[in-house]
Every structure is written in C-alpha cells, then in structure tokens.
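SDR family NAD(P)-dependent oxidoreductase, pasting as requested.
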Amino acid sequence: MKRLVTVVTGGSRGIGAATCLRLAEDGHDVVVGYLRDAKAAEQVADRVRQSGVRAVCVGADTAVEADVERLFASAERQLGPVTGLVNNAGVTGPFGRLADVDTADLRQVVEVNLLGTLLCSRRAAQTMTARGNGVIVNVSSSAATLGSPGDYVHYAATKAAVDTLTMGLARELGPDGIRVNAVAPGIVDTEIHARRGDPDRAQRVSTSIPLRRPGQPEEIAAAIAWLMSPDASYTTGTVLRVSGGR
Ligand code: NAP
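Structure tokens follow.
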C-alpha cells in the first residue's frame, strides 16, 4: 500500500506538534518542520515514532526558497514521495495598532505567513501534480474574517490571503487530483501569545468566545486530520472554522 508522507511546517510545538502526533495515529509518516528549536522537533518526532510510523525532522525557514527546497528534498530522500502538506508555520508579529508596527515586523509576518505558504504549496504542487494526487491543508485563522483591529491587522490580512490561496489553488489543482483546504482556528492555547509578550491572552479573551474557553491544539489537529483523510475526499477549497463559535 502507498505510504502517506506528510510535511508539517512548524511541527515543533503548538498546533503543528499536535498535528504531527494526530497524523501519526492516522498512519502518516511525518516530516516535522521547524525553524530554530531542533530539540523540541526531535521530541515530537520521538513521540510520532511511538505510533509505529516514521518521522524525520528538518530545520527550514519556510520564507526562504532554498530552505523549502531542502525541506522537501530531504523529506523525499528519507521517507519517499510527499503526499501531504500542512502549511502550519506562522507568526503574529507584535500586538498593537498598525500605526505602531515597524516595517521589519510587517515584512516578517507577510513573508512567513504568506510567502512561506506559497513557496511550500508551490513545491508540493510540483511533486503532487506529477503523481496525480495529494492533499494540502493550510492553517489560517479566524482573524482572517474578524480583521483583528487593535491586535494585529497585518496578521489578519496575511491569513485572509491564505484563505484566498486555498480557494484558488483548490480550483487550480482539483483536476490534478489534489485537494486544498484550510482550517481557521480561533484563539488556541499555545506559546504563540507568550512569545509576543501576552501569555494570558488565550484565557483573557475567553469571555468573547461562545464556548467560553480557548481551543486546545489537539482540537485543531483533529480538524486538520479530517481534511487530510479520505473521509474528506469530496472536500476541497473550503475553510473550516474551528473557533469555539467566534
Ligand atoms: P507556535 O506555538 O508559536 O509555533 C509556531 C511554529 O512555527 C513553531 O514550530 C516554529 O518553529 C514555527 N515557525 C515559526 N516561524 C517559522 C519559519 N519562518 N519557518 C519555519 N517554521 C517557523 O504557533 P501556534 O499557535 O501553534 O500556531 C500555528 C499556526 O496556527 C500559525 O500559522 C498560526 O498563525 C495559526 N493560528 C494560531 C492561533 C493561536 O491562537 N495559537 C490561532 C489561529 C491561527 P520553532 O519554534 O521550532 O523554531
């Protein structure tokens, strides 16, 4: 039987790590992508292997073309043809009003969230089109439709672009047997908030969430895993909101 080989960018922690573990349970061999934290990525890979599948870690900046090429080439050399991609790596940039955000931060958010997703999707499309099948799931955000005024409109704008990419690429690649979807999480309990100096953010905004709590990474991973699975075989071009109703 054909092996499922799935690249998860930003797999070293948070939603990406939960996705690696969940996909492993579903029988995927997993490529744990990460930027800096090799040790965390290796710990995720160890846990993936406990499910009886294969795992490799590859450090790569998804916003850098040569890194993306190395990520996929390394994955294919070690595990075989890539059949799945989860575009999860992302950054928020600083919290606050757009007027106060400097250009370097804007550039980084656009380059990681949008250019990185484009570069990885392009590389995956090249491989998958040649083989006539494949699945891509993009990790967007509920911010794409909320706009996130006062928090990070720059981040929200990149995620709206990811939604458009999802719709367009799904239509472009459908005839090639490739499905493309997105998951749009709401506020999820990960380190992404603390890394920008707001560790209590997930709990603090709970009152504005109909389900009255932040999401857990495993709850997002479950939605990603469904979109990756044959159960979603007729689902493409959709953005699945997983946000506690917000
Ligand atoms: P996180 O805990 O901060 O983890 C981010 C991951 O992305 C880490 O593995 C990090 O690698 C990796 N990464 C960052 N920049 C990268 C780059 N340039 N190249 C490659 N990898 C890079 O984030 P998270 O909360 O799990 O978020 C994951 C995704 O969900 C993001 O796209 C985010 O926008 C989206 N999301 C999150 C929330 C939320 O509330 N948490 C809500 C909606 C959407 P290393 O640290 O290993 O270097």
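Note for the archive: Strands lie at 5-8, 29-34, 55-59, 84-87, 134-139, 178-185, 239-242.
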